[in-house]
Structures are given as C-alpha cells and as structure tokens.
Design a protein that fits this description.
Blueprint (H helix, E strand, L loop, with lengths): L1 E2 L2 E5 L7 E4 L5 E4 L10 E7 L4 E6 L3 E6 L11 E5 L5 E2 L6 E6 L5 E5 L2 E5 L3 H5 L3 E2 L4 E4 L2 E4 L6 E6 L5 E5 L4 E4 L6 E5 L13 E4 L5 E6 L2 E6 L13 E3 L11 E4 L6 E6 L4 E6 L4 E4 L12 E8 L6 E8 L2
Parallel strand pairs: 9-13
Antiparallel strand pairs: 1-2, 2-3, 3-4, 5-6, 6-7, 7-8, 10-11, 11-12, 14-15, 16-17, 17-18, 18-19, 20-21, 21-22, 23-24, 24-27, 25-26, 25-28, 28-29
Length: about 325
C-alpha cells in the first residue's frame, strides 16, 4: 500500500517482514522482533491518520509498526504485537485473515473466530493496554456477538462506510456502518452464489459493484453505495429514460455523502425523499404512497448533509 508516495509491502518468511520503497526508489526492510520472524504475513493496511502500518501475521496476530514519519530512519521507530492476551489485543484468534480500515479510522479485523474492531489506532502506541472489541448484536431478542466463531475471509468497506464480510462456509453479509444491523445476507440457497465458501471480496467504488470470489468462480452484485464526493459532481441518472419494460431501481450518482434527495414531478409536487449511500442515491420509482409513478419528467433536488451545497438532475419515465 502507498502512503505519502511510499510503497509499503509485507515479506513472508524473512527476519525483516516489513519493507518500504520510498519516492526516490530507495528500499529498506524492518526487523519486527522474534515473533514476527520467518512467519507468513498476509494482509497489510495503513492508518494514514497516525501513520501506523498494520500487518497480519499468521498464528501471531497483528504487527502495528510506527515509522514516525521517517521511513528510512529506524532510530525513532516502535512496534507492538496485537495478540489474544487481555490487555495486548484480546483477539478471539491469532489467525487473522483480513484487515480493513473504514472511513472513520476504525480497524476491522477478520479472524478464524469472528470479527473484532479497534475503534482507533491511537491506544496501540500511546496507552499501556489495548484490546479489540467484539460487536454485540440483538437477534431474535437475544444478545450475541456478530458472526462469533465464523471464519472471516475478507472485509471490505463500501462508499457508505458499510461493511461487506465474507466467510468460509457462511456466505456474504452486508452490515450497517457500525456493524449492528444486517442489510443483506447472501448464501447459495437464497442467491446466485456458486458456493457459501467465499475467499475474497472486491468493490468498484465508482459503480458500487461488489465482486465475490469463491472456489467455483466469481459473481458480481450491483450494490447501492458508491464512493462519495467532497462536493457535488454533475448528477448522472441511470437509466435515463426509463422505458416501459424496465422494472429496476433508478440510480443517481455524483452525490456528497448522505445527501438528501427530494424527487418532484414537473409541477413541483413532492413525490418522494431518499438519501444517498455514499455518492449514490436509489429511487424505486414509487411515490410516498408506494404507488408506481406515471409517465413524465421527474426532478432530483439534492442537498448536502450540512445544507450548504445543492445539485439537481432529471429523468424521463415512459410507462
């Protein structure tokens, strides 16, 4: 991964498992202690807020490395190991398969025994103890931990900061931003998935498409969230026009995060209000009474979350 022009990579089965290539082409490798020597290093992410490198080390846990903004000078570096012990990580398993950092700087960790979170990187280097947190959810009136004992294979963050989690045998889950609500649960039985064993996920932030890789092939899903914009872009509506044979949703891209979108007809009469997931808003073509709207031109009037920015577009619907 790249931070401030420097490329950071992991090296398995060496005495110096973390390496960097700087902007001027210089390479440097870092010794990270005996427990990280000659181990399988799988995933690597960078917390740009603090400049910490997070690297998963099989059967050890996670290495967090602070290069103190001086990648070629080791004298001021420090590192910590996050393991299963209380006060030093409390991971449910030291077999960590995937790491992801969300849009709020929270670190999501997928292990052989479910997912956990560090809500900030700060405590790792600045406090005497640091423990990951499990996600408590309510299901059928009972409190339990999210996907406890499931082998998590991948975690990806979409444009609305929602969490896509794949498992080894349980299919794929889309969770709300904080992870406490399940939006989608895909399995071989209720979807076109080839297998409930999903090895990896990938998201196209521009289109919202999610790709799910299994031993039997790759399948895609057109999700509702795209990456948001700092300011409104030209709003793109798809499809446009909406022809009589089309039965799906109408998507509007180019939004700022969590924008309010008021849909009105050609006379200015309010039809419905929706909100964007990241940079995309979805309208099902129904009005406030859940009735399909008739033929005509409909306008999308978008307002940013803070109320200061506005944008508009339109769509022609033919019934």
């Amino acid at each position: 991964m790249i931070i401030r022009g420097n490329l950071w990579v992991s090296n398995s089965f060496t005495s110096s498992p973390l390496s960097v290539k700087t902007l001027d082409g210089s390479w440097k490798s870092f010794y990270c202690g005996g427990v990280a020597t000659n181990k399988l290093c799988t995933d690597l992410i960078i917390d740009e807020q603090y400049g910490f490198i997070w690297m998963a080390i099989k059967s050890v846990g996670i290495l967090v490395y602070d290069f103190n903004q001086t990648p070629l000078d080791e004298s001021d570096d420090q590192y910590k190991i996050i393991g299963s012990g209380s006060g030093t990580g409390s991971l449910p398993s030291t077999f960590v398969n995937t790491l992801a950092i969300d849009r709020d700087g929270e670190i999501w960790i997928g292990t052989d025994q479910g997912p956990v979170i560090f809500y900030s990187s700060y405590p790792i280097m600045n406090e005497p103890t640091y423990d990951a947190q499990k996600i408590l959810i309510e299901q059928d009136g009972t409190l339990q931990y999210l996907l406890e004992n499931e082998r998590i294979t991948d975690i990806e963050i979409d444009g609305a900061n929602r969490k896509w989690i794949s498992t080894d045998g349980g299919g794929v889950f889309l969770l709300s931003e904080e992870g406490t609500q399940t939006i989608y649960s895909f399995s071989k039985n209720n979807s076109p998935l080839y297998s409930d064993v999903i090895n990896s996920l990938a998201i196209n932030d521009n289109t919202g498409e999610v790709y799910m890789g299994s031993p039997d092939g790759i399948i895609g899903f057109k999700s509702t969230a795209t990456s948001s914009n700092i300011q409104f872009k030209t709003l793109e509506v798809f499809p446009n026009p909406v022809r009589p044979e089309y039965q799906g949703n109408i998507a509007v891209r180019g939004m700022m995060n969590n924008s309010e979108v008021k849909i009105v007809n050609a006379s200015g009469f309010p039809v419905k209000t929706v909100f964007s997931n990241g940079g995309q808003a979805i309208w099902d073509g129904l009005d406030n009474n859940n009735q399909q709207v008739g033929s005509g031109v409909y306008y999308f009037l978008a307002t940013s979350e803070d109320g200061y920015s506005k944008a508009k577009s339109k769509v022609l619907i033919i019934r």
